[in-house]
Amino acid sequence: MTEHETEHDRDGAQVSTGTTVEPGDNAEAAIPELVIISGMSGAGRSTAAKCLEDLGWFVVDNLPPALIPTMVELGARSQGNVARIAVVVDVRGRQFFDALRESLADLEARGVTRRIVFLESSDDALVRRFESVRRPHPLQGDGRIVDGIAAERDLLRELRGDADLVIDTSSLNVHELRAKMDAQFAGDEEPELRATVMSFGFKYGLPVDADLVVDCRFIPNPHWVPELRPFTGLNEEVSGYVFSQPGAKEFLDRYTELLQLIAAGYRREGKRYVTIAVGCTGGKHRSVAMSEKLAARLASEGVETVVVHRDMGRE
User: Domain RapZ C-terminal spans what residues (predicted)?
Assistant: First the structure.
């Protein structure tokens, strides 16, 4: 994030909305929709929560995990006044963090639909943000900022694995993060599955928020064709060259079939968001062309799809 935040406001549970919960004695409303926002300190949890608040969600910051089922129960008794609840869970409440899994199991037993949004960022980006605001990491103690980041990654590893949506904010500013949250939560009706297809270059590193990674380096590189080198995979001649190579079309066909199988499983498990990272050496030719074709195939299957070319233009 380029407009930095490290979310160290205070330790108590903080309700960050003007909506009032007024339980009715005999009222039985629908169980509220629940989103749990977590992730690395400095990765943008406050921005994500504020975005949901602006969309009309009832947002509770730093609520102890053991109280999440109680919050949902209050929402169900609010005569429809609190239909959507977002809870920010972070390491400021680490003494309660062990209760999170128990609370999630309790919610599942009650039939509560919950989604976990995890805000991720690279170590370098997090260090820059903490240094820019001259505040310590909440877990660094007497050590360095990087020590606190490492401790937090270890603490949150299991929760990250359970997340329905992982957003990497390493190169995002506040407005771009808000746009991503709006894209996922602003609609009145949730689609069955949303996919981000991201091209990238292996030489710049794997995308940390990828659910699936595709390697296109088995296809001959247009970089070594002088007349194609200046262009990208968005160029028709480059795309034509890529898909004229042995195995390229077959790979697209087979991987699309595999994604249909995976998507069906995601839907059964209630996972609504998937990021598919398509890589080549530099993220300029092969991965871009393959990402465009793959996204078009997914869209034709009814999957709402966004294409991002992470490294195109870096050379």
Answer: 195-312
205 is annotated as contributing to ligand binding: no
- List, in order, residues 6 or more apart from 29 with CB less than 8 Å away: 75, 76, 77, 78, 79, 80, 83
Please indicate if the annotation marks 92 as binding a ligand: yes
**Per-residue model confidence as pLDDT tens digits over 174-200:** 888 888 888 788 765 544 678 999 999
| 267 known ligand binder | no
Comparing CA positions, the residue from 6, 43, 200 lying closest to residue 121 is: 43
Q: Is 187 annotated as a binding residue?
A: no
As a whole number of angstroms, the distance between CA 39 and CA 37 comes to 7
Q: Residue 56, annotated ligand binder?
A: no
Is 40 annotated among the ligand-binding residues? yes
pLDDT (0 to 100) of residue 18? 37
Q: Rounded CA gap, 204 and 280, in Å?
A: 10
User: Is residue 35 annotated as involved in ligand binding?
Assistant: no
Taking only the tens place, the pLDDT of each residue in 199-224 is 999 999 999 889 999 999 999 999 99
pTM check: above 0.70: no
- 244 appears as a binding residue in the annotation: no
Q: Is 141 annotated as a binding residue?
A: no
Q: Provide the edge-to-edge strand list for the sheet that holds 33-39.
A: 14-15, 58-61, 84-88, 33-39, 114-120, 165-168
Give 66-80 pLDDT, tens digit per residue. 888 888 888 888 877
Give counts: helices (H), strands (E), the chain. Answer: 9, 10
With contact defined as beta carbons under 8 Å apart, do 33 and 56 qualify? no
**Is 101 annotated as contributing to ligand binding?**
no
Q: Is 225 annotated as a binding residue?
A: no
